[in-house]
Amino acid sequence: MDKSRGGWLNGLIGVFIFSGSLPATRLAVQGFEPLFLTAARASIAGLLALVLLLLFRQQRPAGKQWRGLLVVALGVVLGFPLLSALALREVSAAHSIVFLGLLPLATAAFGVWRGGERPRPAFWRYALLGSLLIAGFALSQGLSASLRGDGLMLAAILVCGLGYAEGAKLSRSLGGWQVICWALLLALPLMLGLAFLQRPPTLAQVQAPAWLGLAYVSLFSMLIGFVFWYRGLAQGGIAAVGQLQLLQPLMGLGLAAWLLHEPVSPGMLLVTGAVLFCVAGARRAAQAEASPRR
């Protein structure tokens, strides 16, 4: 069980880092346009990834691996950052964080498709319950308030789940940090060009919070978090460790309240507390599935 525990620990660290992504993005879009922000964060992280790959002299991926890296790049380097940044122009960080409760279910589904995993029915019951709790709460808060914003968040979740599952699959052969670095490098020419074309006419009016938000999403959300996350998914299983994402709303809501002074209702806390039960149940189901194999 050492490898499994390591997977859950790495996954938890990754989730903790990612929990600051939406609040940081919310800060960043106050000073930068979403398209520029997406390109800038990927460009900064991509340049750092290039340095790491050269420094540690990593062997280039094989032909089939490049196709998987393209899926990762489209999902987590371009798709989720852009779609979530656009959504955060329409909805609050606290509201968007609630939708992240659907991400574990999407990751598990893509893990079955791309990773060849077959979780037990008990696992799916906990995963579905946790996602329904989050989705039900979002509906109770008035989903029609911004159909465009909520639709963008749902699209972001789908492409992110695919990117997570594909990256975890590749991590088994390439390594966790290598996957995100190669994906960032693959997207770097496009992101650099896009950042140049979408650059603001002046940066003099950009306030410090927006710069801090850009720094966080570039260093932590785009690079460091994935080092832990992909390793955790590869070690503990895509579907199983992916359920840790149910904790991300709880962490993110706390950060949104602390940093952005956004209101966090008792209902939000109640729902995010309830998903703790679902995470624990999913972990027990995953352990029960692994035990007979030993």
From TrEMBL:
Keywords of this entry: Membrane, Transmembrane, Transmembrane helix
Domain spans labelled EamA: 8-130, 148-279
Keyword Membrane: yes
Membrane-protein topology: Multi-pass membrane protein
GO cellular component, one term: membrane
Keyword Transmembrane (UniProt): yes
Top-level taxon: Bacteria
Main location: membrane
Subcellular location: Membrane
Bilayer-spanning residue ranges: 7-29, 35-56, 68-87, 93-113, 122-139, 179-198, 210-230, 267-286
Family statement drawn from the similarity comment of this UniProt entry: Belongs to the EamA transporter family.
Protein name: Drug/metabolite transporter (DMT)-like permease
Organism of origin: Roseateles oligotrophus
High-level lineage: Bacteria, Pseudomonadati, Pseudomonadota, Betaproteobacteria, Burkholderiales
